[in-house]
Amino acid sequence: MQRVLVVLAGLMLLISPTLAEAAASAAANGKSTDALAITLAEMSSFTGVTSDGWIYYLEYDEASGRSVQKKKKADGSGAQVVKNSEVFIKPYNYSRFVNYSYTDNNVISLTNKPQFVKQLAQNPNASIIDIIGDSVIYWVGTVKSGKFTTGTIKKAKLDGKQVTVLTADNGQIDWASFTVYKNTLFYTMEENNTYVLYRVGLDGKNKKKLASDYYAPVGQMDKKAGPVTYYGPYQRRNIVISNDQIVYLNMNESAVRLKIDGSGKLLLHEDESGNPFVEGDWLYYSTKSDPEAKDWLSSYSYYGPIYKVKLSGGKPIPITKGHSGLLFVKDGWVYYETESYELDHRLIRVKTDGSSAQTVLAGLVGDQEFYTRAVIGDWLTYTLYDNEESAGDYRIKLNGTDNTKLAYSTAPDAPTAEEQAEYEQAVRQNYGKYEMPDMLKQVIALEDELRERKMLLGGGLIHPYFEGFGIGYRYESTPIDVIPFAMDNYDDEVHYGFLTDFGTVSNLDEAAIVRVSPYEDDPVQIVAGNFRAFMQLLAYKPMSVQYWMADMPEDDYAYLQEEAAEVEQSLTQKEKDVMSIVRERFALEPISDVYAYMQKLGEDREKKIAAATEDGLGVVYSGTETASVQPLAFDFEEYEDGVHRADLKDFFEEASTLDKLVFFRDGQYYYLWHDNSKAIAYLQEQLKAMGLEDEANRIAYPEPYEYDDEYGADYEALYEYYFGS
Predict the structure, then answer these.
(1) How close are the terminal C-alpha atoms of the chain, in Å?
(2) CA–CA gap between residue 477 and residue 482 (Å, rounded)
(3) 284, 292, 372, 627: least CB-packed within 10 angstroms?
(4) CB-CB contact of 114 with 132 (8 Å)
(5) Contact 538, 440 (CB under 8 A)
(6) What percentage of the chain's residues is helix, strand, coil (to nearest 5)?
(7) Where is the Prolow-density lipoprotein receptor-related protein 1-like beta-propeller domain (predicted)?
(8) How far apart are CA 563 and CA 296, in angstroms?
(9) Per-residue b/e over 452-475, b at no fewer than 16 CB within 10 Å?
(10) Which tens digits make up the pLDDT trace of 581-616?
């Protein structure tokens, strides 16, 4: 017995240090993981995290309109600029369509990858879907409005050899759906205004249509940023596959489960569900508190109770009562919020069986409410609103402790003299030969005044946010003869600008106003005849400028006004006061028949233009130059994958001035020259030769993505690599 004890003691001497080291290592890893989570929470956005612990992020330069890629360590130290060739972002690396912060949260180094992968990552007409072992799965084709409209999905070795075509469908493939699971690619495609779910083996065999009623994915806490769990309400959601079962919402917004081979299809519940979420073998979802209640966007309000149902089927089980809007499920806890209009807007968590309710966030008073932003590790980030104005961003532990205001949401430092001078120069470049209209200056001044009085609607005046924008505030779809002056309060990619018709309007008071929505199929719409009319519409019928589309049927417009009436009824007194102040300050009267006004706007435009263009604006031209009997058109379809300067030169040597102006409209519509700095330089020369100095300056923005010379920086070299010389 004594010998046994001695032996056991000896084993303990050997084991104990190992256990202690393991415990110490686990504690250290826990601390480093939490440090990473805190650093990410403290950032307003980030690109992703690499396997070696670097955080990549974009830092925007206001004056140039260019984002610089940087990286820093998990603890926030060591910030430095990154070469564009150093990393690529999964699954889609082209910022025209994807906000980096909302894609996958990991980045992969290109440093040790073969040249083929580097060129794929830099090709704007390609998308790396995934890298698995020594193979890369990628898509090559064309893109429009964020969808892969034509093209082929392939698999190849990392050196570009042994290429296998997985699918060559020419439909509207949804880029967000690409999901690789057990040597199979799952994806959805838009067909006849609905999504169809497909699968195909990574060997290109056994392609199969799985479902024709796919509507949307469900949620799942399956994304990570390095070792840290990350879940954001707007992040890209793949097709959710759990234990060889696909879970999705059908067209009735009810959850469906089927096996990955397409068999065993089962309707899990018949309720229209809100924010369904998979955790383990269960699906959780909110139901509508009032089936007849709709908000101003005609979407239903999902505020409980919350149910759960087994993925194998069975009767849904309620786990909450009353108002309870499901947010997410994590580590055995269901997190939900009470209605924001209740006296005390709360965030609560319960165990997955409905027990052990705990309040995570409460204590809001008056008109305070919160908006959850992301789950990062054991932290939740949220924005606090007070009287509908942001009162800052915060992070709080999921157990309700350590509620901390984020540093970036504090008041920014006043700009330095140098920064102010750069900003003013950028504004001057944006306006070019024109002066900012006095009425716009007065609107901006009123906006500042009402902001000081804490009366603004979500930060901007009425609906848009007015500002003297620098030349860098442009998107690829912003026409080069448009001067932006306001952006949407709720979607800062949507903006409004003065249409100068290539510098032919005498002053901006007379310029038509356009709305630019970069990710719409028809991104540019004329919404007012001049700035004063624009303000009249905003002051009385704001949804007209927000949603008007050319050739909108009268029935659709009538429905839009019904929605607008509901919005007007729901306005707070403060919002009504702001509307009254704007109307009185600028002596604005309502336009009696807005639909007729909009129709006439389009008719008058048709009479003015000398040539139609793809973007619907057309070209106003009164030159005396004799145009060719048959206008010279540029074949954009032939060059949809890129264009050489030689092709441009052939066209410009033969084209009339009107032909060239049409080219600039249509070329921008087809994204012909973006990310091709040499083509842009040539087009700048042509614009200057035409006397369009301001347009020549604007065409350089947003600045093209500069590829590192080490990896064949020239776009035309990439073009030749893929499509031949």
Answers:
(1) 86
(2) 10
(3) 292
(4) no
(5) no
(6) 30, 30, 40
(7) 40-216, 303-419
(8) 6
(9) eeebbbeebbbbbbbbbbbbbbbb
(10) 999 999 999 999 999 999 999 999 999 999 999 889
Give the pLDDT of residue 18: 46
Rounded Cα gap, residues 335 and 319, in angstroms: 11
Q: Using alpha carbons, list the distances in angstroms from residue 264 to 180, 255, 268.
A: 21, 14, 12
Q: Which helix (H) or strand (E) holds 8?
A: helix 2-41
Contact 154, 205 (CB under 8 A): no
The H-assigned helical ranges of 417-571 are 417-431, 438-452, 531-540, 542-547, 554-569
| Distance (Å, whole) CA 186 – CA 184 | 6
> Are the beta carbons of 149 and 143 closer than 8 angstroms?
yes
Angle CA 457–294–536, to nearest 5: 40
**Residues making up the chain, counted from first to last:** 725
Contact residues for 553 (Cβ-Cβ < 8 A; gap 6+): none
pTM flag (> 0.85) = no
Phi/psi at 538 (nearest 5 deg)? -60, -40
Which of helix, strand or coil describes residue 304?
strand
What angle in degrees, to the nearest 10, is found between the helix axes of 677-689 and 645-654? 20
Contacts 24+ apart (CB under 8 A), 24-27: none
List the structure tokens of 166.
């997985």
Q: Is 407 helix (H, G, I), strand (E, B) or coil?
A: helix
- For residue 306, the one-letter residue type is I
DSSP 435: P
Look up residue 590 and give its two tokens.
């309502």
Question: Which secondary-structure segment (H or E) carries 28?
Answer: helix 2-41
In contact, 268 and 313? CB cutoff 8 Å: yes
Return phi, psi of residue 594, to 5°. -65, -40
Spatial contact of 525 and 548, defined as CB atoms under 8 Å apart: yes
* Average pLDDT rounded to a whole number, residues 378-389: 82
pLDDT value of position 301? 54
Residue 373: count of CB within 10 angstroms of its CB: 19
Alpha carbon distances (Å) from 372 to 41, 328, 382? 12, 10, 4
- Residue 655: closest CA among 689, 622, 681: 689
Task: Look at the alpha carbons of 82, 84, 381, 410 in this order and tell me if their dihedral is positive or negative.
Answer: positive
- Token pair for 679: 């083509």
Tokens of 351: 């165990």
Each residue's pLDDT tens digit, 33-50: 889 999 998 887 787 888
Give the torsion through C-alpha atoms of 410, 415, 419, 422, to 10 deg: 100
Note the Cα 464 to chain centre separation in Å.
18
| C-beta of residue 370 within 8 angstroms of C-beta of residue 383 | yes
Q: What are phi and psi of 134, to 5 degrees?
A: -100, 20
What gap in Å lies between CA 524 and CA 480, rounded to an integer?
12
Dihedral sign, Cα of residue 528, residue 533, residue 538, residue 540: negative
Torsion of CA 686, 687, 690, 693, to 10 degrees: -140
Average per-residue pLDDT for the chain: 79
Write the pLDDT tens digit of every residue in 73-125.
999 999 988 776 676 655 433 332 233 333 456 777 777 788 888 888 777 67
Report the run of H or E that residue 266 belongs to, with start and end: strand 266-267
CB atoms within 10 A of CB 508: 22
